[in-house]
Amino acid sequence: MKLHSYLLRRLLLSIFVLVGLSIVIFIIARVVPGDPARMALGPRAPQFAVDALREEMHLDKPLVAQYYYWIKGVATGDLGRSLVTKRGVLEDIMEFLPATMELVMVSAIFVIVFSILFGALAARYKDKWVDSVIRIMAYTGVAVPSFVLAVLFVLIFGYLWPVIPALGRLSAGVQPPVSITGLLTIDSLLTGDFPVFWDALKHLFLPALALAIGPIFQEARIIRSAMTDNMGKDYVAAAVGYGIPNHIIMGKYLLKPSLIPAVSVMGLDIASLMGNAFLVEVIFNWPGISRYGMEAMLRKDLNAISAVIIVFGLIFVLVNILVDLIVAYLDPRIRLGGKL
Amino acid sequence: MKKWAKLRKKLVIPGVLAILVAMLLAGCGGGKTESQKGASDSQQSAREKIIRISEANVPNIDPGVGSDYASSIALANLYDTLVFPSHDGTLKPWLATGWKTSSDGLTWTFNLRHGVKFHNGDELTAEDVVFSMQRMLTLGEGYGYLFTGVVKEVKALDNYTVQFTLKKTFGPFLSTLVRLYILNKDQVMANIKPGPYGKMGDYGKDWLITNDAGSGPYMVKELKKQEHLYAVKFDQYWGGWDQDAPDAFKIIGTTAPSTIRTLMTRRELEITDQWQTKEALEALDRIPGVSVNAAFTGTILNIMLNTKKAPTDDVHFRKALAYAFDYDTVVDKLFPGCRKAKGPVSSVLPGFNPNLTPYERNLEKARAELAKSKYAGKLDEYPVELAWVAEVPDEEKIALLLQSNAAELGIKVNVVKVPWLSFVDQVAKPENTPNASIVFVSPHYSEAGSILESRYHSKSTGTWEQCEWLKNPGIDAAIEDAISTLDTNKRFEKYGAIQEKIVDLAPTIWAFDQAEKRAYQDEYVVWPAADLIKQGKPVTSVMGYMFYFHDFKVYPNKVPK
Fold first, then answer.
1. One domain, residues B63 and B112
2. Which of A77, B100, B518, B558 is most deeply buried (CB count within 10 A of its CB)?
3. Contact A42 B67 (CB under 8 A)
4. What is the DSSP letter of B556?
5. Which positions ≥6 away from A233 have C-beta within 8 Å?
6. B285 to chain A, minimum CA–CA distance in Å?
């Protein structure tokens, strides 16, 4: 199967996944107890106001009709109005998604760079002190949730040792750049505002690290395990026999095939960063979509809940496709359906 | 040479790790520069003479929509009202210089102050008052419920005279006017979009999400959802300015304890929210220059007893629980700084009856009441279901205390943690409402009638404000009679009588009068309400008005180093 037809097939399947997800989340959001209109307007709100809001949200209609109106809106880019922010959900998502994307992208870079580095180091120095140190760090990193790390980072770097900014996206008094992509680092680079770029980058460091530490060590362990397995293979013994230097065997012949299992998990982990970000965003006062989604769930903001889940679902689907493409690139047998 | 190569090989890995650790610790290389920057940020912002306060959310600044705490603070500072609540519970003329009432109490006529400017320079007139009330009545959101059942008509008699006609006599009408924020009609109308309100379009709702059309001491500079509201001083404010008054205020939408502690330490926050735990407040109190202020604003923690469900349907059973509850432990150990509640109305609210005999812990009386109950001897068959709201962890302490107190009488209490959304749904029907529910309730306006009506009138059953399902026609009639009494003294007398009746019915265990505790920077900020509390004086119980920043003072040169 050629790469483009493989990609097309995956994209078509993804549409079914997203439609299924939209139905599930639509039903789940509505079976949670409580009348969203009454919740939004309060116990003393006059009935006419509650009725008007119910009508506006189509809550006075059967569930199937509600889904019809909602999916029709989604298809035309109208995600409805948020009961919390009182404005269009699309507008909210456009504002909050870039902040989370920026955070997740920096976290993803940390995950990719450090997991490969730690995994390769641990495999290269298997059962030596380097391996032991990385193993201890891995157990700690995987066991401690990201929000605990976030609290520790804020207390240490915001309170005891303020060497790096611990709250928000920019320092007080720093004017954000003109919004082009919504990503402060990219926008500041595009507008040539390097001091703002530097400030935004520093603000990203701690929250991104808090999010990344768990996945870094999870992937590092997988890479280590795959590399040590491959070390015993005949082709490696042959390479050693030919006198190929160690660093070439490690980097060229061992690392690439050992990355396949890690890349599959890494893709899911990176997509999961979106969901894991909500507490980190609360703690670092980061105005992202995960925090917005959490607020929406606590206050039964139906339109916002549905939209956030769909956005997350879409990102999961796209990341999975990307991961499959990378794996297919790394291992031709996969994209060729085992025909080799 | 070989030795050196070996040594170099050995040093490679520790070297790489050391560089990584250094990178992790130093961030992207901020180092000292950032530290200095952090310090200069706080100093620079302090020089701005700004008050920054944390709240549970970023406010809704549309006067027809916002009604939570953050919104009430913002609206009190961005808009003006006809009357203004004094710290002693009385109302003083504000935009209205005077008013008169018809003998039947149905017509209220207000004379307006001349020369009041909106933030865009327009003059405030009676037409703006009419527009603001009509908008409130049409939207029915936010504080609109205070007026929708009361106000029949509003009209401008001339540029500076406005007249309200009521549907029925409503004694506390003046008190509710602290929630009628006056909008600039022309400015709003210039910004309407198509919407569901006929020729009024969306009534300016979309524009008012991030803009203000007020005449208050501050005007909106920036509103970022999920982040903050930033407002700056309106130089032409009719009330004038003290030279030390804040130039700006910022309401920051976060209550995360680690964030709050960091901001307070760096002097980047002047006042915290009221949701910090006891432990977090103790830590904040230890920061040099920070004090904790406790204000009583009319909120009571109630253990609401379902009077329509066995065994709490029996008045003697309810009284037994009320006598068994350990009120002293609550105020001494669980919630230090709070005080015992004497009845359904907080002692800070005008109309509170100081002559009530509150329930005190007395196991003998409790056992005597239990003996009179129809459930005496059958307690095993009637366990009490006690619900506390999952989002308010402090309530669990009260639940466990009541469970332990009731066990002394042989009453089995099953404690259940219920998420707020489920709780609201459960209490919609009497059969689903737990026997006992722990809920904080605040007054809607500063008078006993507000609490009596929202807590014990039959029309509030089915909402979280009344899980008692009292449904007592005598109480309903008495409340309606009281709030339709124009004469304040007579109205307060009637409130007093209702409170006595309710205490006798024991539909609720009034656990304590809540002290709203906030840490603040008392070295360089003068907060009038905190000063009044230090002097043992009352503060306003109208939500938001304790934070009328115009009257604050900020001294940047006193910011602790």
1. no
2. B518
3. yes
4. G
5. none
6. 15
Q: Cβ–Cβ of A198/B45 closer than 8 Å?
A: no
| Residue B39 counted as domain residue | no
Domain-wise residue ranges, chain A: 97-277
Instruction: List, as ranges, residues 120-159 from B with C-beta within 8 Å of A.
Output: 139-141, 144-145, 148-149
Shared domain check, B437 and B318: yes
Provide, as residue numbers in chain A, all residues whose Cβ is less than 8 Å from the Cβ of B225: 85, 87, 92, 95-96, 287
Residue B4, domain member (yes or no): no
CA distance B223 to chain A (A): 11
CA–CA gap between residue B428 and residue B451 (Å, rounded): 19
Give residues with Cβ within 8 angstroms of A32, minimum separation 6.
A300, B421
Is B25 touching A (CB cutoff 8 A)?
yes
Task: Scan for tokens 């976060």, then name that residue.
Answer: B254
Could you list the residue range(s) of the whole structural domain that residue B274 is in? 49-78+216-289+522-561
Residue of A nearest to B223 (CA): A85
pLDDT in tens, chain B (561 residues): 455 555 555 555 555 555 555 544 444 444 333 433 443 444 444 468 999 999 988 999 999 999 889 999 999 999 999 999 998 888 999 999 999 999 999 999 999 999 999 999 999 999 999 999 999 999 999 999 999 999 999 999 999 999 999 999 999 999 999 999 999 999 999 999 998 999 999 999 999 999 999 999 999 999 998 889 999 999 999 999 999 999 999 999 988 888 899 899 989 999 999 988 888 999 999 999 999 999 998 999 999 999 999 999 999 999 999 999 999 999 999 988 899 999 999 998 999 999 999 999 999 999 999 999 999 989 999 999 999 998 788 899 999 999 999 999 999 999 999 988 788 888 989 999 999 999 999 888 889 999 999 999 999 998 899 999 999 999 999 999 999 999 999 999 999 999 999 999 999 999 999 999 999 999 999 999 999 999 988 899 899 999 999 999 999 999 987
The answer to whether B26 contacts A164, with C-beta atoms less than 8 Å apart, is yes
Q: Which helix (H) or strand (E) holds B510?
A: strand B508-521
Q: What is the ipTM, given to two decimal places?
A: 0.81
Q: Are residues B509 and B471 in the same domain?
A: yes
Distance CA A49, CA A66 (A): 20
Judged by a CB distance cut-off of 8 A, whether residue B34 touches chain A is yes
Cβ of A161: how many Cβ atoms within 10 Å? 11
Residues 168-227 of A with CB under 8 A from B: 168, 171-173, 198, 201-202, 205-206, 209
Query: Does CATH number 1.10.3720 belong to domain A97-277?
Result: yes
